[in-house]
Amino acid sequence: MLIRVEIPVDAMGIDRLLRQSFETSAEAELIHQLREDGLLTLGIVATDDEGHVIGYAGFAPVDINGEDHQWVGLAPLAVAEQYRSHGLGEKLVYEGLDSLNEFGYGAVVVLGEPEYYCRFGFKLANEYQVYCQWPDCESYFLIYPLADISQGDSHGLVTYPAHFDHLWA
């Protein structure tokens, strides 16, 4: 198994994985559109020994109070069914966090299960006075600071690219 940054040849395998991992094709279509529009900040893939995509973590830019602060949102995270419960999702998340930290990003936000993501160091975003554009999602809106975000301009409403609206609105 290999975990690495996605390359163009991975696109079909990522699409296949996302369509198999979620109830609808919404996540696959989201990644396709983000990639097409140049809004996919980072994609991390896990491949098996034959080079097939078996895991994926995507990261896209988010704004705070309508301004770019070099933050990203993690979405989606997917692992092929036969590889689940073996720590692959954790490896994908950590590889993404490490890469984003090296690139100088300030924080990563995610809409996800707190029980799952808190073990990686994510915390409820409202503890940092950071809020989600979709109010019904606040109890699932988490943040992982990569830099000091205690400054006043790093608080407020986080907005995702419009591509995400059909998933959460």
Topology (elements, then pairings):
Layout: E1 2-5, H1 11-21, H2 26-36, E2 42-47, E3 53-64, E4 67-79, H3 88-102, E5 107-111, H4 114-117, E6 123-124, E7 130-132, E8 141-145, E9 156-159, H5 165-168
Parallel strand pairs: 4-5, 7-9
Antiparallel strand pairs: 1-2, 2-3, 3-4, 3-9, 5-8, 6-8
Helix pairs in contact: 1-2
Explain how this protein is built:
The chain is α+β, with helices and mostly antiparallel strands. The chain contains five helices and nine strands. Strands 1, 2, 3, 4, 5, 6, 7, 8 and 9 form a nine-stranded mixed sheet that branches. A hairpin with a 2-residue loop joins strand 3 and strand 4 (67-79). Helix 1 (11-21) packs antiparallel against helix 2. The longest helix has 15 residues, at 88-102. The N and C termini lie far apart (36 Å). The model has no long low-confidence stretch (mean pLDDT 94).
Question: What sequence of helices (H) and strands (E) makes up the elements?
Answer: EHHEEEHEHEEEEH
End-to-end separation in angstroms reads 36 Å
Rounded mean pLDDT is 94
The coarse overall form would be globular
In short:
With 169 residues, this protein is of the alpha+beta class. It is 27% helix and 32% strand.
Search tags:
alpha+beta, 169 residues
